[in-house]
Write a structure and sequence with these properties.
The complex is a heterodimer of chains A (480) and B (68).
Chain A: H1 3-19, H2 24-28, H3 35-51, H4 54-66, H5 69-79, H6 81-87, H7 93-100, H8 105-114, H9 117-123, H10 129-141, H11 145-152, H12 157-166, H13 170-177, H14 186-190, H15 195-206, H16 212-221, H17 224-235, H18 239-251, H19 255-261, H20 267-274, H21 282-294, H22 298-307, H23 310-321, H24 325-337, H25 342-349, H26 353-359, H27 368-380, H28 384-393, H29 396-418, H30 426-436, H31 442-453, H32 457-469, H33 474-479
Chain B: H1 3-11, H2 16-47, H3 50-60
The chains are: A mainly alpha (480), B mainly alpha (68).
Chain lengths: 480, 68
């Protein structure tokens, strides 16, 4: 269930509140649609229902117009909520407000249940705030979350504050906002809630497994500041709850909101989050990787990987390799795009030679831009050994490409690498020499020879002696 | 476009089986809605005093049970 799927759940429930429950098999077909399509259907059904016998109610509205507010209120009460609800879209909003003042809040709540919510949204601001808030409270207490929620974002802020003060049931509040017709206004509503109450609402949501998807939906609707507050409150919970939350996110495909909120999580929480037992489950990790790929959120997983311990990185690398070329290449491209190419070498350092060989067959490593980013990141972060290991396991053509990149621009990258040569072990020197011997372009070879010539005696000597041990005169080879 | 034509046109964008299920439910819901309206109009007549009832009848007419 992606966030759009959660929005689809909200839209389907609003439609079903209008037309009755749909058979499960047909309802499941809605996953092929967009929430907006279901909303259009709801609007069309509302038009259909409320245009029926419209002329009767238009005429009735003329009578209401002619009556005083007192008599019109009496007429509304005598006629009942259905007739009142059908008539009010044809009455001037100011008159509706005057009549509403004379009606009980219970009757207003009954009218709300029968009226076209679109008409109510424009009329609400003409009704006294106290009455609006009390009617909303009645609807929430009656568990009429769909009706109350549809109007939540149309309420004036004073009415919202009153509702918050009058409703103690925090889970009911969460259930109500889920049905808002303009979910992007949820942030504005949450800003009316004080910190203590917001914490209470979130903790209440966390305490009730049924409302976890709603919490995820809330996280996805709000801006960064509120997202951060909510997310950090969640990750402070005990590991058992978080493990369960991760399992629910995986089974209900709710990874999207989690991935989108990762960069708002404080560093100390990130560490405890990634080391949760639930993420040691291959199936869960696969679900996370697939969701990150499907929703274009690969880049958001990078901070997670950087926070993991070596064992977990090795586990991620192993599971990642099984996800196929599309997912792996998307990860590599996103890591490079986000200036996190070093994470590729970090993961690579946790792989066996066989795994590295498998990884290096990806076509993404034929891309100069990707290779250059990896080489620069390797030098910059001191992952020289992983870099050389990676380079030497590339297929022949990839090695030539990478050697050529190091030699390009008068050997600029090679020079940077040799400046960190203290990090190289014996076998790395051999691999480096083999790599440099792949250079075929005379200009580049001259550039590399120059770089070696101006290295410290120790570095130049190391290169030469490793080349000699391999039966090769490197400088001669580079003079071509 | 009439509201029912509009509904049909929107339903055409959905998978057939889902559209059919929604159409069926919407029809039932419209029938219930009509019945509920007619019955409430009738009840309203009984609640009103005689003079008010006369005005109400004149205003709402007898067409409230007919489909428009």
């Amino acid at each position: 269930m992606k966030t759009s799927s959660l929005q689809m759940v909200a839209e389907l429930e609003k439609l079903q509140a209008l037309i009755g429950k749909l058979p499960a098999a047909q309802r499941n077909l809605a996953s092929q649609c967009q929430p907006g399509q279901i909303r259009e259907v709801r609007d069309a059904v509302l038009d259909n229902l409320h245009s029926d016998q419209a002329s009767t109610f238009r005429r009735l509205s003329c009578l209401v117009r002619a009556l005083s507010a007192k008599h019109a209120a009496r007429l509304a009460t005598d006629c009942g909520p259905v007739i009142a609800a059908r008539t009010l879209p044809f009455v001037e909003p100011l008159k509706v407000g005057k009549i509403a003042r004379r009606l009980s809040v219970e009757f207003l709540a009954d009218i709300t249940l029968k009226a076209d919510p679109r008409a109510l949204r424009t009329l609400i601001r003409h009704v006294p705030t106290d009455q609006i808030a009390s009617a909303a409270v009645i609807l929430i207490e009656q568990q009429q979350y769909v009706t109350a929620g549809q109007l939540a974002d149309a309420l004036p802020s004073t009415a919202i504050r009153q509702v918050l003060a009058l409703i103690d049931d925090d889970v009911a509040l969460l259930r109500t906002v889920f049905y808002m017709d303009e979910p992007d206004q949820l942030g504005d509503i949450i800003r009316l809630v004080d910190n203590e109450r917001l914490n209470r609402i979130i903790l209440a949501g966390l305490g009730n497994r049924d409302t976890w998807p709603i919490l995820m939906w809330v996280i996805d609707q709000v801006g960064r500041d509120i997202k951060s507050r909510i997310t950090n409150l969640i990750v402070e919970r005990d590991p058992e709850t978080l493990n369960e939350l991760i399992n629910v996110a995986n089974s209900q495909a709710l990874w999207g909101p989690i991935l989108r909120s990762l960069d708002t999580i404080k560093e100390r929480h990130q560490r405890s989050l990634v080391h949760l037992q639930a993420l040691r489950d291959e199936q869960v990790l696969e679900g996370l990787m697939k969701a990150a790929y499907d929703e274009g959120l690969m880049a958001n997983t990078i901070p997670l990987i950087e926070t993991m311990n070596g064992d977990l990185q090795a586990f991620v690398a192993k599971v990642g390799l099984r996800q196929g070329a599309d997912i792996l290449e998307a990860f590599i491209r996103d890591a490079v795009r986000q200036n996190h190419a070093a994470v590729i070498l970090t993961l690579l350092s946790r792989m066996t030679d066989e795994q590295v060989k498998e990884l290096t067959t990806l076509s993404v490593f034929h891309d100069n831009f990707i290779l250059q980013a990896i080489v620069s990141a390797g030098i910059g972060t001191g992952q020289i050994r992983s870099l050389i290991r990676f380079a030497r396991r590339l297929p022949g053509k990839g090695q030539e490409l990478l050697a050529s990149l190091m030699a390009a621009d008068h050997g600029a990258l090679l020079e940077r690498l040799l400046n960190r040569s203290e990090l190289l072990g014996d076998s790395d020197w051999n691999e480096l020499v083999s790599l440099l011997s792949k250079i075929r372009i005379p200009d580049q070879a001259r550039g590399v020879a120059d770089v070696i010539h101006y290295q410290s005696r120790q570095t130049a000597q190391a290169l030469k002696s490793h080349a000699e041990n391999m039966g090769m005169d490197l400088l001669k080879a580079l003079r071509l | 476009m009439t509201p029912s034509a509009q509904l049909s046109s929107v339903l055409d964008t959905l998978p057939d089986e889902l559209a059919e299920a929604i159409r069926n439910n919407a029809e039932t819901s419209l029938a219930t809605h009509r019945q509920e309206t007619a019955s409430e109009l009738e009840q309203a007549r009984h609640h009103l005093s005689l003079p008010s009832r006369l005005v109400f009848n004149l205003t709402t007419g007898k067409d409230h049970q007919a489909k428009e």
